[in-house]
Design goal:
CATH superfamily of the largest domain: Formyl transferase, N-terminal domain
Strand order of the largest sheet: 5-2-1-6-7-8-9
Strand content: 25-35%
Largest sheet: 7 strands, mixed
CATH architecture of the largest domain: 3-Layer(aba) Sandwich
Structural class: alpha+beta
Helix content: 25-40%
């Protein structure tokens, strides 16, 4: 089976490497153009381009895939199938029908759950205990095409969006190989999704990182985990932006009888706690473990307490 591979982010790299290792005929790798990055805004190559170059594969970076550029690219390479993993451009309907086996997408959820740009993040934010990967036939909708194969992946208590994405990418790479092998052997027919069970995973915005301590600690912890590395979960301390990168729900600190208002800090030796909103069992608490004041590096709770002379009774506020 002759393939065209379309992908851009780090999540797509394991699939590209696995297909290459399995000696699939990859005619070319299509990825987004280099984009300005960093303080100097120097053009930076996407992760898939760097991986393709390391593997000695030809790379194409069209500004737009729709219209004549995409049609010419497909005509030039004549793939039997196009593998697409986080490419970042919509594919027009007229191009979807050109390859013999169509376009085969790898998505980081158990479709039809979490259709959209941020399935890993929203699975964590919503407190899921498991998610997975899906290979499916790309169609004109947003992650609506019929499903080839799926594989469930458990979510660990200490997972964040980075660790979970890495694990899903590795599992997804194996699933794509299995999908292509079985498809080439005529052993696989895609099954329609149950659209009534669909949920959305929209693109993240900065505002999703704003923390509200009137919510239960578990909900806040899930949001923190889901927003690593961007936009990051943030609050306000002494009128200044404060990112929280790691925190754990815990029981009430020793000696606390009357829970204070949500957002109130409690300093206990080298530990830092913040009061959160109630759940069925009563008020809840987070133990803050890694924080980053605006313009500073990330700090442990101990270093934050000592460096800023944090006092019990001070508050974290929901920023405007």
């Amino acid at each position: 089976m002759k393939l065209l591979f379309c992908g851009t982010p780090e999540f797509a790299v394991p699939t590209l490497r696995r297909l290459h290792a399995e000696t699939f005929d990859i005619a070319a790798v299509v990825t987004q153009p280099d984009r300005p990055k960093g303080r100097g805004l120097a053009p930076a190559a996407p992760p898939v381009k760097l991986a393709a170059q390391q593997l000695g594969l030809p790379v194409e970076q069209p500004d737009k895939f729709k219209g004549e550029p995409g049609r010419a690219l497909l005509a030039r390479h004549q793939p039997d199938a196009v593998v697409i993993v986080g490419y970042g451009q919509l594919i027009p309907a007229d191009l979807l029908r050109l390859p013999r086996h169509g376009w085969i997408n790898l998505h980081a959820s158990l479709l039809p759950k979490y259709r959209g740009a941020a399935p890993v993040q929203w699975a964590l934010i919503n407190g899921e205990t498991a998610t997975g990967v899906t290979t499916f036939q790309l169609d004109e909708g947003l992650d609506t095409g019929p499903i080839f194969l799926q594989r469930e992946v458990p979510i660990a208590e200490d997972d964040n969006a980075l660790t979970l994405s890495h694990r899903l990418a590795e599992v997804g790479a194996e699933l794509m190989v299995e999908t292509l092998r079985r498809l080439a052997a005529g052993q696989l027919t895609p099954e329609p999704q149950d659209h009534s069970r669909a949920t959305k995973a929209p693109l993240l915005k900065r505002e999703h990182g704003r923390l509200n301590f009137s919510l239960p600690a578990r909900d806040i912890s899930n949001r923190i985990r889901g927003l690593v590395p961007w936009p990051g979960a943030f609050t306000s301390f002494r009128g200044t932006l404060l990112h929280i990168w790691h925190a754990k729900p815990v029981g009430p600190p020793a000696g606390v009888v009357q829970p204070p208002a949500p957002g109130t800090l409690l300093v206990e030796r080298h530990a830092l706690y913040v009061a959160c909103g109630p759940e069925a069992s009563g008020n809840t608490w987070l133990r803050l473990e890694e924080l980053q004041p605006a313009g500073r590096k990330r700090l442990s709770a101990t270093d934050f307490i000592n460096g800023f002379h944090v006092r019990t009774g001070e508050k974290l506020e929901t920023p405007a």
